[in-house]
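pasting input
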Amino acid sequence: MKADVPPSGAPLVELKGISKRYGDLLANDGIDLSIEPGEIHALLGENGAGKSTLVKILYGVIEPSAGEIRWEGRPVSIGSPVEARALGLGMVFQHFSLFDELSVAENIAVALSDEWNLSTVRSKLGEISSTYGLALNADRAVWTLSAGERQRIEIVRCLLQNPRLLILDEPTSVLTPQESEHLFTTLDRLSAEGCSILYISHKLEEVRRLCRRATILRAGRVVATIDPRAKSAREIAALMVGNEVGEVRTDAPHHPEGEILRVANLSMPPAGLHGQALRDINLVARAGEVVGIAGVAGNGQSELFAALSGERPADRADAVVIAGKASGIMGIDARRRLGAAFVPEERLGHAAAPSHRLSENTLISHAAAEVSRSGFILVNAAKRLARSIVQSFDVRTPEGDPQARKLSGGNLQKFVIGREIIRKPKLIIVDQPTWGVDAGAARLIRQALVDLARAGSAVVVVSQDLDELFEVADRMAVIHHGSLSPLRPIGEWTREAVGLEMLGVAQAHGGAHAV
Amino acid sequence: MRFELTPRTHVSPVMRALAPVAAFITAFLIAGFVIWLMGRSPVAAFDVYVLQPLSDPWALQELLVKATPLALIAIGLSYCFRANLWNIGAEGQYVIGAVLGGWLALKTHGTEAGAWVLPLMLLLGVIGGALYGLIPAFLKTRFGVNEILTSLMLVYVAQLILDYLVRGPWRDPKGFNFPQSVTFDPSATLHPILEGGRVHYGAVFAAIAVLVTAVVLGRTLFGYRLKLTGDAPRAARFAGFSSKATTMAVFAISGGLAGLAGISEVSGQIGQLQPSISPGYGFTAITVAFLGRLNPVGILLAALVVALTFIGGESAQILLKLPLDLTQAFQGILLMCVLAADAMVSYRIRFATRGGGK
Ligand SMILES: Nc1ncnc2c1ncn2[C@@H]1O[C@H](COP(=O)(O)OP(=O)(O)OP(=O)(O)O)[C@@H](O)[C@H]1O
Ligand SMILES: [Mg+2]
């Protein structure tokens, strides 16, 4: 109803001619955008289109090269996030800004103004998380949490400040469908209460569900302002990219041969007080196939990834067998030497060092191979490698060999995946492969994973995105509370069966879905 | 009102290069003001502190002499600091290096022992410093004890050990009860590079350390490992770099270089063990490391600059009756100014009025 009422007076916020230049690159090029009170406004565009740059300007994180911001009709200069918050802006960043060592409540308290303390945060936290269905345990240390849970902290932290304009930069990319649905209800409610929302997402279906107006950016410019409900997701995608996005080809014949990965009765105690234990996990991945692992964030995916990669070795060598070698107690480096490759969920800080150049970032997983010799770095080889990753995976970079943090989120994701695939590993384990990438890039990444499998590697994809798993996986299992369901061919799974397994109720209904 | 730092989106390379210069000028202005408050002429002080040492050949040699231990220790510390590990106890590692190396000098005193004594002394100095540096590293990796506290507290332990030795078992019996050891034999003495000069071979060690470190940090996987551990510890774990091994390695390296500085100083300059063998080199080297931005060549320059304040401080004490403590105060001011200038290059300071909540 709210957007149907003609706006009385000035829009809440108006951006006029906003530009941002990085060297030769115009990340934002004369952008005009206005948001009415209570409106949910979508900001769309492919990876690197300039969405994050624009909202960071609005939130006072970066300074525009040109342009004007009007707040309720008055020109304002927003010089810092503190000033932005004072005006009534709240923002959830694409990349988390949390302190790993602190607890959930502490992380929230430090970001709020002085009148909040730990106990008020704690009591309010319970209230907000139950009203909006964003479950959080106030005392857990952030480093033990999955990306989805971290995202919840960021959102709750914003909501506690009663913002008048809430900016969400890809909030749902790591949420499960259920969590997203909760979030949408929350957003609808906030909007009805008069709070405006600027919403960035690559998931066009949810944009069509939520928003009545969408501004589409391409290469830093506004190419259209549309009503997303009046167009199909396909049409919107075409506006963003300039052409149509195809589907992943998975139909190439494949004959899974030889086991590459075998996980046998893997159990691990939780890493910290609140970590998730792994319980008796059994899993086999064969050459030529893609194995999918579905599940709601926080059910042991990070722990499983750490155990498979060797970041946290198991206590038994035969718990994890890679390419025929019992490697359960090997470190990650030794497993890489066996031909395994890993892509963790978090790209900035875990998969890549933000302040290091892309060429230096190749050393993280290629140290054993072509970029070093007897302990010395081969600088030119590293640069060449970075360049070929950038080319093969269509990574859009602002300069030749930029620092990782200068890449847009989706482009960095393409880089860290490309860095592993280009090694042609025998086994690759990927956690959330398409987190925050646009439709075109998601297709490219999924296709690369499928092609890798078809060329004879084993691919394990951990994802919350069921559509993704149904698209690429040959066999799938569901992880819940640290236990893994049996692996079944993808054709034998239905969405309902997966949903039940995800909630841990499948055992009760047992036989109904068993093979 | 409160003020906050917001990162600059664009960091100008010119400003970055000029920051240390600005820091120096500011530090001199503040120090000049303090000297003026003490009723002395800041201009005369500047002359004594800076201009005179730089125009006197004897003082220039002295500059190298003082810069040598500073550079050696600071180079070692840069390994730790790059990996975000805080070795504050280089002074103690310096002392233990001197003690262990000095032990051999005293053992062979008055014997016919030959040319092997000196190299072995230096080696023992390195080993002593490295082992002493490994104590906080071990406590950290094994029990999670904060390395800042342990390394700092071990300084006082080391100083007391030295004190006890030179007052007790190692005291020169013919030394009129002065708390000092016998003077080292020529075979246990690090000689000047030039006959009759003051600069000894320690300066060569420092130069080698600078060169080797430039290669190690810039070109080797080990150097990258330190950088990654410091900048993104999680990515370092993902790369397969064990943080325990890194911690042990950098503490051993920095302790070893501090120990080398200690034994070089004792056998090259002082010639015997005595209760005080350092005017605080181990602590000042922390300033030097940051002044040089943890860059080997930068550290070399910074060591020379800070050495100047030592020499200037000594002459200011004699000529202007300014207290020697002023030198340390000045070094402190300089470090503050350098850190502030660096921060201002990468961040903007804004005064923000309190947010809407109230
Ligand atoms: N600090 C920086 N220095 C140089 N270039 C930058 C910097 N930050 C961003 N860019 C560039 O600006 C462009 C826009 O980036 P931005 O992060 O706004 O994209 P985005 O639309 O949010 O993309 P994504 O969907 O991948 O998150 C990209 O080409 C990026 O490489
Ligand atoms: Mg973005």
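fyi Residues 1-7, 508-515 of chain A have pLDDT under 50 and may be disordered.
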